[in-house]
Specification:
Blueprint (H helix, E strand, L loop, with lengths): L11 H14 L1 H10 L11 H9 L5 H14 L5 H4 L4 H7 L3 H15 L5 H4 L4 H8 L7 H11 L11 H10 L8 H7 L7 H14 L11
Helix pairs in contact: 1-2, 2-13, 3-7, 3-10, 9-10, 11-13
Amino acid sequence: MTQTPELESLTEESLTRGLLVLANLDSDLARILETLGSPPMWSREPGFATLLCIILEQQVSVAAARAVFNRLCGVVVSLTPENFLTLDDVQLRGIGFSRQKILYCRGLANAMASGQLDLSKLESMDEITIRTELKRLKGIGDWTVDIYLLMALQRPDVFPKGDLAIAIAFQKLKNLATRPTPVQLEAMTQHWRPWRAVAARLLWHYYLSNANAKSVTVSQ
């Protein structure tokens, strides 16, 4: 059975195709591609560990979140919802979890351990359904869902309009006087459909090429 374009996952071949389409649509994106080459695929394994890691990345740098995640993996060798739930607040704070992140990640783990949420079933569903299901959980908003859809499920047209690095890159690329808001970014990138996830990778690529850029910092 052939999937609809929305449900198709990006591949190296479709990424290349999307880059060519975007370069023809937008001369600024074409300039990034010509100057820096193709962006990485930036893929992650679907599942609990990845979604938990994305929650840790909310409103902090990727480097800071990754340090906490690595410490967690050092304590819990097999990072499953059930194993995560064996850790108490004192242990999690010692690893580097904030009070909010403990609440959010424990909520995710409980939902999965109880069968309320099945991430493997969501993989074959449309974006609206996935967004609705994940946002039922406290601490999971549009940015978290966007990053999971874009990196773990490799959906081609997801655009994380609440991502700070993307907003900074877009402002610089388009020479805007002020940083665009998420609503403005959403409106100004409609012509990139159905390849906005590819455009997002180009913008991250552009952001990270700046010598002063340390780590992608994002917001919920």
